Amino acid sequence: MNDVFTLKGKEILITGASKGIGRSIAVICSKNGAEVHITARNSEGLENTMNLMHTNGHDLHTADLGITEEVNALAKELPILDGLVLNAGIVKTMPVRFIKEEGIDVTFDVNIKGSILLIKQLLKLKKIRENGSICFISSVASKKMTVGNAIYSASKGAINSFTKSLALELAPKGIRVNAVLPGMVKTNILQDSSISEDDLKNHLNKYPIGRFGKPEDISYLVVYLLSNASAWMTGSLLTIDGGYSIS
Amino acid sequence: MENDFIEILKDVFEVDEIGFGDRFRDYDSWSSLTNIALIAMLDDEYDIIIDDKEFRGIETVEELFNEIKIRTA
């Protein structure tokens, strides 16, 4: 394989890396040669991710992206980065009629506001290298709706717009910004939501490939976006969903 | 607690009367959305996270109320 796909020598930050998709991205980036910096609220989960990573030289930063002071402190601690993966996110399933203000705030703070503030700080501190790559983990839920997920979908829709806008702004510096829109991936985020087993079984019928995603399915696309192989790609929203959105 | 519980159910299912013997899945407004709403309300109001299997075993309003009483005792 041509080494244009390698992450060797690249410093990559991954948020929400204590479990699920973020953990998988961290591990696979490390296997592809990156020096990985991981962050999340849960330090125990981060330690576990560290133990799964290939080789040494990686580090972890416990921080809550919902708290501005912690975002600023994180930006200060980090070295100059070649790549950022904004993956931290939460799901709260609730019909609109029962949404509470606090639920909206928490979802938007974690899913979008924290990422925006982190990027702003890193740009201010000149900690994103020219020709770097920023990759958001959005969701196919931003384009294809399911009942009860209005706030989650809205927060992911905000990510999509921000991705394109930031891509335009950073293009003169050669920094690329793209978003990945995964379909249903089997992670613990599902167990924390109110989705029933029956609903999940019915939902699976809408996936032409015949299975839900695995975290590594998403990670390989992220590696492509972080590598020099995607040098001409920016402002793109890449759906990866086993065919869900065409079914 | 009993009155609050009944008021929550009235709100979720958009009905004026709730009887303890009612099978809530028989309400006209029962749907995947009210199912989600009910489970989310139990979490919000009573800090109860009820898994899908257990929830399917609960059929009447009374059974649901008793389950909450046991878990919040």
Strand order of the largest sheet of chain A: 3-2-1-4-5-6-7
Task: Find the biggest chain interface.
Answer: A-B, 14 and 16 residues
Give the N-terminus to C-terminus distance of chain B in angstroms.
12 Å
How does the helix and strand content of chain B classify structurally? mainly alpha
Shape annotation of chain A: globular
Helices and strands of chain A: which structural class?
A: alpha/beta
Helix percentage of chain A: 40-55%
Helix content of chain B: 55-70%
The H-level CATH homologous superfamily of chain B, spelled out, is: ACP-like
Tell me about this structure.
The complex is a heterodimer of chains A (about 250) and B (about 70). Chain A is built from eight helices and seven strands. Chain A is of the alpha/beta class and about 250 residues long. In chain A, strands 3-2-1-4-5-6-7 form a seven-stranded parallel beta sheet, with helices on both faces. In chain A, helix 4 links the parallel strand 4 and strand 5. The radius of gyration of chain A is 17 Å and the shape is globular. The relative contact order of chain A is 0.16. By secondary structure, chain B is mainly α. Chain B has a single domain, classed as Orthogonal Bundle (Non-ribosomal Peptide Synthetase Peptidyl Carrier Protein, Chain A), CATH 1.10.1200.10. Chain B contains four helices and no strands. The longest helix of chain B has 15 residues. Classes of the chains: A alpha/beta (about 250), B mainly alpha (about 70). At the A-B interface, helix 7 of A face helix 2 and helix 3 of B.
SSE topology:
The complex is a heterodimer of chains A (247) and B (73).
Chain A: E1 11-15, H1 20-31, E2 35-40, H2 43-52, E3 59-62, H3 68-77, E4 81-86, H4 101-124, E5 128-137, H5 150-170, E6 176-182, H6 188-191, H7 197-204, H8 215-226, E7 237-240
Parallel strand pairs in A: 1-2, 1-4, 2-3, 4-5, 5-6, 6-7
Chain B: H1 2-13, H2 32-46, H3 52-56, H4 61-72
Helix pairs in contact in B: 1-2
